[in-house]
Structure formats: structure tokens, C-alpha cells
Amino acid sequence: MFDKLAKTIFALCAVFAFSLDAVHASDSFIETSSCDRWEATNYKRASKPDRLKLGLALGGGGARGAAEVGVLKVLDEAGIKFDYICGTSIGAVVGGFYALGASPLVMQKEFENGNVMEHFMTVPLWFRVAISPVIKLVNVFKEKDYDGLYAGNRFRTYLMGKLTTEEQMIEHLPIPFAAVALNVMDGKPYMIRKGNMGWAMQASCAVPTLRKPVELGDSLFCDGGLICNLPVKQCREMGADVVIAVNIDEPFIPLKKGQLTGFGSMAKRMIAWDLHDLDGPQAKYADITIHPDTTGISLISTKRKDAKRGVKAGEEAARVALPDILKLLQECNIPVSPKRK
Fold this sequence. Notes:
Elements: H1 2-23, E1 29-31, H2 37-42, E2 54-58, H3 65-77, E3 84-88, H4 90-100, H5 104-112, H6 115-120, H7 125-138, H8 153-160, E4 177-183, E5 188-192, H9 197-204, E6 214-216, E7 219-223, H10 232-238, E8 242-246, H11 265-285, E9 288-290, H12 304-331
Parallel strand pairs: 2-3, 2-8, 3-4, 8-9
Antiparallel strand pairs: 1-5, 4-5, 4-7, 6-7
Helix pairs in contact: 3-5, 3-12, 4-9, 8-9
């Protein structure tokens, strides 16, 4: 009797261990790299006898993600269907739910009523910074936690909502999807291709200092925007032959002397330059890049008027780009099915 019981327990442990290995399997996290200017300049689309695969690359940008929803509204109405979707940071959130089958109209409502950013920033940043010394004092006797003002767990819970366990798994999404995040343990970017979508989104959005990094298996992930903010190369690595990218960076335009005198203006300018420099090659690597005008929309804005302005900017930019997109898809033998109004 005890021998049978021991065998049963051993078998159950083996199954449990196998399930853990499956969750943390190496193919869940696929190493990637940023796109350099040589790659972008010398890329040539391969010719294929069959239909080419279409990919969507959605960049990071916090509250500016509302512009990506505006773009998707226009592309969705035009009947453009994607074979692959890859997103970084807020692009992973928008892209993940689009891959799940969420309507752009539903996502628009969530941005415009403030739900997305209010759950991303559960309390005002100034308040979190002010009480951080008190939190550290209270937690002095607790187990040490990773650095970051926000954990991000409430944001993940909000995103997952009422989804079933199966719906939450990336490998079960109707459209193949990847969230890009940086593994701070080895300093390399990865595409998260399997596992819980909520954790993948939280990891891809974990802005250093603002949010705590996310531990997945033996890896510790933070925001992928640090190295692959506009994941065009990653979308191609998934299998896309043709890539439409959405860049939601603020346009980097020349300034006049005297415009950088306000407190923090230099830091803001350098962040804008860094994103401009980082995303330039990736944008060039895309077949078409849609770049909505997100001027003046802060990365961490919780203002509903900014969300509405972002959606409108996305719609406008997508409509301008739509004739070129439809022409490209026709040349590549990629069908579209416009929705009836």
C-alpha cells in the first residue's frame, strides 16, 4: 500500500515538475537584438510564390498608446488582417489584446475613460515618491524586494479581467503574438512567445525605477523599450514578410535657443532624442511606418483629453498612410476585406 502511495506521489511530482519546465521552457523567451542602420538600409524583401505574411509592430510610449488604438481602428475598418503581432511596452498591451480579438472600439473606450493609465499609475507619481521613505521604513523587516515605485500587479489584474486561464496564454491567442522585454540578468532583449499574457505585458511595461522588474522563471524582465522600442525586426523574426509599424514617439524636431530653460526640459529632450535615435533604424526596417503626432502627450499622462487626442492622431495618421498600405498589400498579394458601414 505504502509502495503504491509512494509511486503515486512520485508520478504526481514528475507531472508537476514537467509542467513547471513547460512554463519556463527556453522557447518561451526567444533572444533577439536591436536593429542597426546597416540592417535597415540593406534589407530586401524576399520574393515568394505564395501569399506573404503580414506583421504589425507596435512601439512603446506609455499614454501615447492611445494613438495605436486610433491606427488600429482605421486598419480594422479597412479589413486588414495580420498574421503576426509584436509589441513593446504599451504596444505589447494594445497588441496583445488585438491578438486576442479585442475590438479597437473597446480599447478606445478604456483609454478615453482613463482606465488604462489610472491602473498603470495606481496613485499619483508625486504621492508615491513622497511616501516611498515611509514604505521603505515599514518594509525594513520584510524580505527585500526589487527596486521600483510601483509593482504593477494591479495593472496586470485589470488587464486580465475576466479572461479564462486558457485565454490568458500567449500560445492560445488567435494571432501569433510576442511581447518584447529586456532581461536585466544578462542584458539581452527577448521576445516572450509563450506563457501568461498578463505577466508578459507587465514585464514589457516595467519601466525601470517607476515599476518593479518582473521575475519569470530564471529571468528578470523590465521594459523592452530600453533597447527594442519599435519591434520591427522582432516581427520579422516571428515570420512576417511585410511589416506595418506604428511609432508613437514624439516627433523630434529642431528647437530654438531658449526653449530648454524649464526645469527638466533637458532630460525630456534627451529622452526624446534617445527614442528617436533608437527607433530610427527599426522604423526604416518596416515596409510602412505610421507615425501619429503625439506632441505634448506625456509618457505617464493620466489626462483623458490626452487619450482622446492620441486616438484622433492615430486615426489621422492611419488614414494618410492607408492608400500606400493598400497598394503595398495588393503588390504582395495580401487580401483585405473592408467592413461594411
